[in-house]
Amino acid sequence: MKQKNHVPGIPRFFSLLSALFLLLTAANAYTAQEIHIGPQSDLSLKKEVQHAIDKGLHWLKQQQNAQGWWSQYEHPALTGLVLESFMGDPDGTYRSQWPAFIEKGYQYLLQNQRDDGGIYVKDLANYNTSVAIMALVSANKPEYTEHIKAARNFVVGLQDPDTPEKGALAGGVGYGDRYKHSDLSNTTFALESLYYSRYLLNEMSASGDMKELNWDAAIKFVQRCQNLPGSNDLAWASGDPVNKGGFVYFPGNSKAGEMKLADGKVALRSYGSISYAGLLSFIYARLDKDDARIQAAHDWLVRNYTLKENPGMGAQGLFYYYHMMAKALSGYGDDELVLSDGSRVDWRKDLALRLLNLQGVDGSWVNQNGRWWEKDPVLVTSYALLSLEIISRGL
Fold first, then answer.
1. How far apart are CA 169 and CA 38, in angstroms?
2. Considering the domain 16-392, what is its CATH architecture?
3. What's the pLDDT at 176?
4. Which residue, of 43, 152, 220, 319, is most buried by count of CB atoms within 10 Å of its CB?
5. What torsion, rounded to 10 degrees, do the Cα atoms 142, 194, 322, 381 define?
């Protein structure tokens, strides 16, 4: 299995501008020097998408607390996702004008940075800090570099050590507090923040004292979450046609439960959102596109492509699923997906139309299924906007 140097520096052909551009559109680790654009520009759809983004951002602006945060004070990640949405606006209005409410949001993040470098209030330390790092990186402001470095070093320190005592959880990252075990969702958030922050700090000559993750151990953890016998050395990994190539929440545990196979064996179900997270994790670890682990993940995702539900989970985590899908398919370099029946799907158009149809008249989005906080319209609107912003740049 081929693997690039997996210390996550952006490839040398990226300029700072293009790297930040790709950050806001889900970095494409496999394409050539030019920004990857879809096969056929759709100006009409692009305008519709921008209109939806404008409405969503306007709605989010109105939801800000007077102290600068959004939705929940105790979870800076929610404010981080909102700020990423404003920084990712394809029109660039908020990045160029930097209005007072944006400054207030960033100050809230920085006010919650602790002496250990983490950006959190009481719990979910990795999730909150990793998302906050992405918001700070997307701002591209030199005055944030020391804050980013401190937060980055904190996240690196949360990685479970590669020791026998940790077993299959070694190399992963969890929530970072009373939730002791590593999981693939938290690991993906951590790898994303480390991938981009390292490049930005290097470009700004601020990488001194910057800690580095044990990427070999992280990759091993991710592959131990994949239903792929051979690369996954754990006995539960299944190569059955339904689950092969997909991912579970952490080794030995799937939020989608189990299924009994024809031969009497029991398999852990692969499911959609976490399988996109698994593919993204391999991308952030800079595995080659032809790596068998990446190809198996991509094959499972194409076989199970749908926008009606989060495969294996129904309506649970649906907008997180869309968010991970947009990042992963853009990062992989897909324009069209060739489904098992031979039909071709323009996933950008497909997902854009789905999100346009789900937007409320006030500009917000919400999931009627509350799993993973998705009854929170601030969270769900941020997921939808970030997805549309990725899509817009490919239209």
1. 38
2. Alpha/alpha barrel (1.50)
3. 84
4. 152
5. -40
